[in-house]
Write a structure and sequence with these properties.
heterotrimer, A mainly alpha (348), B alpha/beta (509), C mainly alpha (362), A: 348 residues, mainly alpha, C: mainly alpha, ABC transporter involved in vitamin B12 uptake, BtuC, two-stranded antiparallel ribbon
């Protein structure tokens, strides 16, 4: 009973960790939702997140530690942020472009191409990450202090003020609501924007039509190829921001070669299913995944081995959702009907 | 009257087949034109060239008096031509309104649902449609989906509408509604072409009728001067003598009893309605009917591939006279119960054969289970393949390397029919066995079927060419809209009479 | 530009296109390596060759990795032949590895070696079959998307492995199982090379032997047996299968059980013949690479050996370069990725003809 009470008291802290964690996979999932809405099942998400992470890290590492040091200037926080975001987005979009060229133009199998992209992307990420580590003098020695700090910055005054209000309740409202880097809020905004885009705009409608019924979209005069390329590349770019967020916000601007990004990438793919391809559901879905992922840490009396069992929960829940979706056959929850299928217009 | 559309000398080949042979046609504004013809007469091909799906090999198209080139559906749209296909092009999870505006550019990126709804409502009111713009396609009946397709075409400003067999999927009440709408559109100055097989509908709705036969233009009559009889004569033409042998087999016996067979499709629409007949060993029972009248479902039901409704009963009588209830059996049960049933399905690669495999592997599809060994017997199918290839003169580089998909249609069909006959069936069902084949191959197939008949096999032959049906078969079962409109002696009936039964007049259902 | 499907292509031409693709990939890789280490690309490949085949030990290591990769791909072949996207080899392999390690740890010395081996093999097969059967069952019954299902099953298996590792860790606190039966009374128990004799190379010889036997067996199964024939028919057209009296659902479940069991056998081999330990690295992403191998080999086990050989050679070679130049070994993944992209892309030129409008002769 006491244990349960303790858990209840620590729940806001757990939720806080869950949100920080969930944002990583939320970006991955949002990007993949865009991709899948165009009918492309890109299993290269983990690779793409690696690309985003390493590109953001490497660009700011060289800027902060080489350019600024050599020229004796203070790194500009603004420049750091822009540089990291642009580098991460472009590198990931480029990875998605390889996938698009192969699957759309050269008509290769989507599953196999995606998995190859994951191998390639994790190779690039870990190779350059490892090299940076060496350059910096060892694992964990990379620091991109300014960049990481700018990504993690939050309105401390507001947070403290709000925390005071709820002090007696043993939790900090400000911390729970606002003590996150700006990317956390951008992710929520992005999810809302995507919801609006998919359901309320003509372009969003066309994109969904491509993924649902490519032949019909083609007959309606929609440029199917252009939509597939753009959706996959932009989706890839957004997934890549998840890798950047992990590197900058989650582990504080360094690199680790433990395959964590890969695991998170697959979790992002799982989240797409869990959210049944709906951006809004991915918001709470990602936080739920985050909470489930960290729950073991807050549940007293768990041994290390039972913690490992606990970490299965997000995947089991996802399988459960997948089963429900296929058994209930509710139309709104189905994957895009043309997902994974190649499209060739009949040659005349 | 002003010409909306004019076709001159339109010709289209598919390989060696001439689908359209120098066809000319004129369509006036404010008129409904029926395009009439048997299956394979080239109606849909002709319409597809107007709507930009095919491009003619020869000939000219004029829209509003100007010569045009229609290379894609978009070109057709831009010329205000809209076609409503038999297979709807709609996104299932979208609403009616979303489907209607799909692919159109608006002034704003945002989808103004109110404006779309208002425009849809305006069209609906003008022509008398009933449509709910917010309803999802997957919740709609077939006729509602068709309404969405028509509104979609009108929303895009079509002045020339082509409807490809729109009534095939509708109930009589829905058909009447559709015709009312079509008359309103006509009043509004639209030009409409309707493809249909149903003569009473032709007479009911259209102003003029154009008849095609075997890719050729036969004639054009004002509807008020036409009758069902005169149209049927134009459509089927004079009986042609094919000189197919039709010997009589003395010891006929009942082999397959079908009683009250009713089958529904996935949407719950009845595809077969209370069908009852007997197939006899030693005769060819022809099944005649417009395409899609339930032929496929009928054969598949007997083969154990359809779910039968309550009350349906299929009984097989084996050579020893034992009655076996086939209801609820799947194809494996049928094999295991030693029911010797062969089936040449309509969709050769989708059902009868494995396109990616060679002849031998396709030949073994029926017999690979033989013997207790878990290992395939390759000798028997190889010998059988060679036998089929030799007997039926199948042109193929080899029997055990080249995927069968790479052979020509006639050779593919010979393999399929040969395999089914080599199963030594007591019931042999064939669906459109000579579709797409040249004359010689067709005669080979006719001879094979007659040979089977003379061995006491009950042959069921689904066909589309009435001349063939009348000369090859002993009896004819005519289907119309899933119902039996008559079972007649093929030696005594005329082509015109069958034609009328197929369109549900004259036959006693 | 106009693209049309080829109606026919000679085997020779197809292989020529693949050879050109591989050559193209090697050139691109050479440029990548040159950009990183500024070394003569020819020398790079010599150095890579040394890395893979330079010494006896290296040859054995290369052969070892090649065999494991082939073995997983062989396991995937039946599922892929049925067009069932089994992305779950990673998990199925781990489950087999866990079952094997379970007996090695808990029953070494408690039962005679032959019985121990039988238990290890049988349990791996059963566990793998179940792991494969689960998504197969749901696909058959409700058409549940198998790509996503098997993908999720991987991570459950990975967590399960972490759980097993934490249970069996040795020494405590190391977060690893260590080499099982390294010394003491149960020295080398459950190591396959120890069944009749001792020593590393015998371990590997067993590995090679079993993998080759499996390759022949699966090839035979898919090509010459009735069940293999059914799998191919289902893969080509479900409707035709139903028409021919094949019970499609049963074939789905049976084949996935077989596929899972074979992948689990790869896990068994990875533990008993290679690492003699269990960790999440026992699979280490090879379950994913094997998918690509199986796909590129068009489900032919013998072609799989060739493709695995190419990938393993590049891997080992790249690791050699990395150590020569003080780089990290992840360069091998980059090179594997590039070469696979090229081979994948080349299939397009085998299946399609590209005509350029200008040079089109009528």
């Amino acid at each position: 009973m006491n244990g349960f009470l303790n858990f209840l008291i620590s729940f806001p802290t757990l939720l806080h960790s869950g949100i920080i964690f969930g944002t990583v996979i939320m970006y991955g999932a949002l990007g993949e939702i865009i991709t899948e809405k165009s009918g492309n099942l890109n299993l290269g998400v983990p690779g793409i997140m690696y690309l985003g992470g390493i590109a953001g890290l490497a660009s700011t590492f060289f800027y902060e530690n080489i350019y600024c040091v050599n020229n004796g200037v203070q790194p500009s926080a603004f420049l750091c942020i822009v540089m990291a975001l642009v580098a991460a987005f472009l590198a990931s979009a480029l990875g998605a472009l390889i996938y698009s060229f192969l699957t759309i133009t050269l008509r290769t199998n989507q599953n196999v191409t995606g998995l190859t992209l994951t191998i390639f992307g994790s190779g690039i990420g870990n190779f350059f990450g490892g090299s940076l580590n060496k350059l910096a003098g060892g694992v964990g020695q990379i620091n991109t202090l300014v960049t990481s700090a700018s990504f993690r910055a939050y309105p401390a005054k507001l947070v403290n003020a709000l925390d005071k209000v709820t002090e007696k309740l043993h939790f900090g409202l400000g911390t729970l609501l606002f003590s996150y880097g700006f990317l956390t809020f951008v992710a929520i905004a992005l999810a809302i924007f995507l919801w609006y885009f998919f359901t309320k705009t003509r372009t969003g409608l066309s994109l969904r039509a491509v993924g649902e019924n490519t032949g019909t979209a083609d007959a309606a005069g929609i440029n199917v190829t252009a939509f597939k390329y753009l959706a996959t590349c932009i989706g890839g770019g957004i997934s890549g921001i998840g890798g950047l967020y992990y590197v900058m916000n989650y582990i504080g601007g360094t690199w680790e070669n433990q395959g964590t990004i890969e695991a998170l990438g697959w979790l992002a793919v799982a989240l797409v299913i869990f959210a049944t391809w709906k951006p809004l559901r991915s918001i709470w879905g990602s936080y739920l995944f985050g909470v489930l992922y960290w729950a073991y840490f807050y549940i007293p009396g768990l041994t290390r081995s039972s913690q490992e069992i606990f970490k299965m929960i997000p995947y089991i829940v996802t399988i459960f959702v997948l089963l429900m979706v296929s058994m209930r056959r509710k139309k709104e929850d189905q994957p895009p009907a043309s997902l994974g299928l190649p499209y060739f217009r009949e040659e005349r | 009257m002003e010409k909306a559309l004019e076709l001159k000398n339109i010709t289209k080949h598919f390989g060696s087949l001439i689908a359209n042979d120098h066809i000319g046609l004129t369509l006036y504004k404010g008129e409904i034109l029926s395009l009439l013809g048997e299956n394979g007469s080239g109606k849909t091909t002709l319409m597809n060239m107007i709507s930009g799906i095919y491009y003619p090999d020869e000939g000219q198209i004029f829209v509003d008096g100007k010569e045009v080139e229609i290379k894609s559906p978009k070109d057709a749209f831009d010329l205000h031509i809209g076609m409503i296909h038999q297979h709807f092009k709609l996104v299932d999870v979208f609403t009616a309104a979303e489907n209607i505006v799909l692919g159109l550019e608006g002034e704003k990126g945002k989808l103004d649902k109110k404006a779309v709804h208002a425009a849809v409502k305006e069209i609906a009111d003008r022509y008398g449609f009933e449509i709910d713009p917010n309803k999802k396609i997957y919740d709609m009946s077939v006729s509602e989906k068709q309404t969405v397709e028509i509104v979609k075409v009108l929303y895009r400003g079509a002045n020339i509408l082509i409807l490809d067999e729109p009534t095939a999927v509708l109930t009589p009440q829905e058909t009447n509604k559709l015709f009312a709408v079509m008359r309103n559109m006509k009043q509004d100055g639209k030009a409409i072409i309707i493809i249909t097989h149903k003569l009473h509908e032709v007479l009911d709705v259209s102003d003029r009728v154009v008849v095609l036969r075997k890719g050729k233009y036969i004639g054009d009559v004002e509807t008020k001067n036409a009758s069902q009889q005169s149209l049927t004569d134009m459509m089927v033409g004079r009986a042609v003598s094919l000189n197919i042998d039709r010997p009589h087999y003395e010891n006929q016996r009942d082999t397959l009893l079908v009683e009250h067979l009713t089958v529904r499709d996935k949407e719950g629409v009845k595809k077969l309605d209370d069908v009852t007949f007997t197939a006899r060993g030693g005769e060819i029972l022809g099944i005649a009917g417009i395409a899609g009248s339930g032929q496929r479902e009928l054969l598949e039901s007997i083969a154990g591939l359809q779910h039968l409704e309550e009350g349906s009963k299929i009984t097989y009588i084996n050579p020893e006279g034992k009655h076996i209830d086939v209801n609820g059996m799947d194809p494996l049960d049928i094999i295991n119960n030693n029911i010797l049933l062969s089936f040449v399905p309509e969709d050769r690669f989708g059902m009868g054969l494995v396109g990616g495999m060679d002849i031998t592997k396709n030949v073994m599809l029926r017999t690979y289970r033989r013997g207790a060994s878990p290992v395939l017997d390759r000798k028997y199918p190889l010998d059988l393949s060679n036998k089929i290839v030799n007997d039926l003169e199948v042109m193929t580089p080899d029997v055990n390397k080249t995927p069968i998909r790479k052979l020509s249609g006639g050779n593919v069909q010979k393999v399929l029919v040969g395999r089914e006959i080599e199963c030594h069936p007591t019931v042999l069902m064939t669906a459109y066995a000579v579709r797409g084949l040249d004359i010689n191959t067709s005669y080979t197939i006719y001879n094979l079927l007659t040979e089977q008949k003379m061995q006491g096999v009950a042959v069921i032959y689904v066909g589309e060419d009435l001349d063939v049906l009348l000369e090859l078969c002993d009896r004819l079962l005519v289907l119309c809209g899933g119902k039996v409109s008559g079972i007649v002696d093929a030696r005594k009936i005329t082509k015109e009479e069958v034609g009328l039964m197929m369109t549900k007049v004259g036959g006693g259902a | 530009m106009h693209i049309s499907k080829r109606t026919n292509i000679s085997t020779g031409k197809a292989w020529l296109i693949r050879a050109i693709a591989i050559l193209g990939a090697l050139i691109v890789c050479a440029f990548v390596i040159f950009a990183i280490v500024k070394m003569n690309p020819i020398k790079v490949y010599i150095s890579m060759f040394n890395g893979a085949f330079g010494t006896n030990k290296r040859i054995w290591v290369t052969v070892r990795d090649l065999m494991i990769l082939t073995c997983i791909a062989i396991g995937l072949a039946p599922a892929f032949k049925m067009r069932f996207w089994n992305i779950g080899a990673e998990g199925q392999m781990l489950m087999g590895g866990i079952a094997t390690a379970f007996f090695m740890i808990n029953f070494a010395g408690k039962m005679p070696l032959p019985i121990l081996f039988i238990c290890m093999i049988v349990t791996s097969i059963v566990v793998g079959a179940i792991w494969g059967l689960i998504p197969g069952f749901f696909k058959a019954q409700w058409n549940t998307n198998e790509t996503l299902f098997t993908l999720m099953m991987n991570y459950i298996a990975i967590q399960f492995t972490s759980y097993a590792v934490s249970k069996w860790e040795n020494p405590p606190g190391s977060n690893s199982v260590g080499i099982i039966n390294r010394s003491g009374a149960t020295k080398n128990a459950g190591w396959i090379g120890n069944m009749f004799s001792k020593g590393y190379n015998v371990d590997y010889a067993w590995l090679v032997l079993i993998t080759l036997v499996l390759a022949v067996a699966v090839y035979y199964y898919l090509t010459y047996t009735k069940q293999g024939y059914e799998i191919a028919v289902v893969g080509d057209s479900e409707n035709t299968a139903r028409y021919a009296g094949i019970r499609v659902k049963n074939v789905y479940m049976r084949t996935m059980a077989i596929s899972g069991a074979l992948c689990a056998l790869a896990g068994f081999l990875a533990v008993t013949a290679v690492s003699h330990t269990i960790s999440t690295d026992t699979a280490g992403g090879r379950g994913f690479t094997a998918i690509i191998v199986a796909w590129l080999a068009k489900m032919n086990p013998f072609v799989m050996i060739l493709i695995s050989a190419l990938i393993t050679f590049l891997n080992k070679g790249a690791i050699q370069i990395a150590s020569d130049f003080g780089l990290n070994e992840y360069v091998s993944q980059i090179i594997t990725g590039i070469i696979l992209f090229f081979i994948l892309g080349s299939e397009f030129f085998i299946n399609y003809e590209v005509h350029f409008a200008k040079s089109h002769k009528e």
